[in-house]
Amino acid sequence: EVQIVESGGGLAQAGRSLRLSCVVSGLIFDDYAIGWFRQAPGKEREGVSCIRRSDGETTYSDSVKGRFTTSFDNAKSTVYLQMNNLKPEDTAVYYCAAYEAFSGTVVVATTEWRFDYWGQGTQVTVSS
After folding, report:
1. Nearest alpha-carbon partner for 23 in 94, 58, 74, 59
2. Which of 23, 70, 77, 118 has the largest CB neighbor count within 10 A?
3. Euclidean distance between CA atoms 42 and 97, whole angstroms
């Protein structure tokens, strides 16, 4: 059974930082990608970042590029989303998601339909 558990959300002032964690277990293919998504009140869910386990390749949305960084700790099966210089518009529920595939076929992209497994979400609130 695949399990995805996010943590690390909370309240932060604009300009400060938060780090989200995503612990993934139960994946069986030899490669996978972890995506971070977010959904603000009244808005559609949007992709934030994606990282491929095999080589660490990443991609980011334009709205967070240069401020957010995603990384792997393979030993802990944990993916992090380091969020710096937070803005009020970053307020949202953040979701971690995973999709697995054979090595060489994993695409690094925040395309929702690719992701089969989702966490429960963690709230991030940024005050001005």
Report:
1. 74
2. 70
3. 21
Please report where in the chains the tokens 């300009």 appear, as a residue: 15
3-class secondary structure per residue, the chain? CCEEEEECCEEEECCCCEEEEEEEECCCCCEEEEEEEEECCCCCCEEEEEEECCCCCEEECCCCCCCEEEEEEHHHCEEEEEECCCCHHHCEEEEEEEEEECCCCCCCCCCHHHCCEECCCEEEEEEC
Q: Residue 112 class from Cβ within 10 Å (0-12 exposed, 13-18 middle, 19+ buried)?
A: middle
Residue 97: Cβ within 10 Å count: 24
Task: Look over the chain and give the mean of its residue pLDDT values, rounded to a whole number.
Answer: 95
